[in-house]
Design brief:
This protein is an alpha/beta fold. Helices cover 37% and strands 20% of the residues. The chain contains 7 helices and 7 strands. Helix 4 links the parallel strand 3 and strand 4. Helix 1 crosses helix 2 and helix 2 crosses helix 3. The two termini are 24 Å apart.
């Protein structure tokens, strides 16, 4: 079943093609996840080489929910393997061991397979330390990324990934380097959907 985008969701999806890094702001309940999923789908379908996608969320429960939503839409449309990098309970391959993440990445490359890694802000460090090449990273509830204990790993991942996109309803602009107006890490605002439109 293909989901239909509302006009503001289509604009969000289109905005993701305008830059390699940037912020997407949309009020709570505006449906930020679907443009993220459809952007991932089109990039995987158009890719000529195996892609590594990382999806970051603030909580394990949300990471599992995102996995379920991604694969409800991607299943049967694109072949990819999944790795969960967090300590939650999940059916499927999961680890927080750096060596196992690197091995999984090597196997995917050797098999010419796309991979999607679902992780949390807390476990993103493990993905970074595995030293894998990330093609696309999506940050859900991205306002969490400015927490002092998360920011270093978020910045490291964003500065090494080929594409990095931040989705939030409540961007945190507070000045200084650890702020969502740090364009080196967060890029520019690609789109901000006004609440009255919803």
């Amino acid at each position: 079943m293909t989901l239909t985008l509302r006009p503001h969701q289509q604009r969000m999806l289109d905005a993701l093609l305008t830059a390699a890094i940037g912020r997407v702001t949309c009020p709570t309940g505006g449906g930020k996840t679907l443009p993220m999923i459809l952007d991932c789908l089109r990039r995987l379908q158009q890719a000529e080489t195996p892609q590594t996608v990382v999806v970051v969320s603030p909580r394990i429960l949300l990471s599992v929910q995102l996995y379920e939503e991604f694969f409800a839409e991607l299943n049967g449309k694109v072949d990819c393997t999944v790795l969960h990098v967090h300590s939650g309970e999940i059916d499927g391959h999961k680890t927080t061991k750096i060596r196992e993440i690197a091995i999984h990445d090597s196997i995917c490359k050797a098999a010419n397979s796309h991979q999607i890694i679902f992780t949390t802000y807390n476990s993103l460090r493990r993905v970074n330390e595995a030293g894998i090449d990330v093609d696309i990273i999506y940050y859900d509830e991205a306002h969490n990324s400015v927490r002092r204990d998360f920011f270093k790993e978020v910045a490291a991942a964003s500065l090494t990934a080929k594409n990095a996109y931040y989705f939030t309803a409540t961007p945190k602009y507070r000045g200084g380097a650890i702020s969502m107006n740090n364009t080196d890490v967060y890029g520019s605002e690609l789109i901000s959907v006004p609440a009255p439109e919803l």
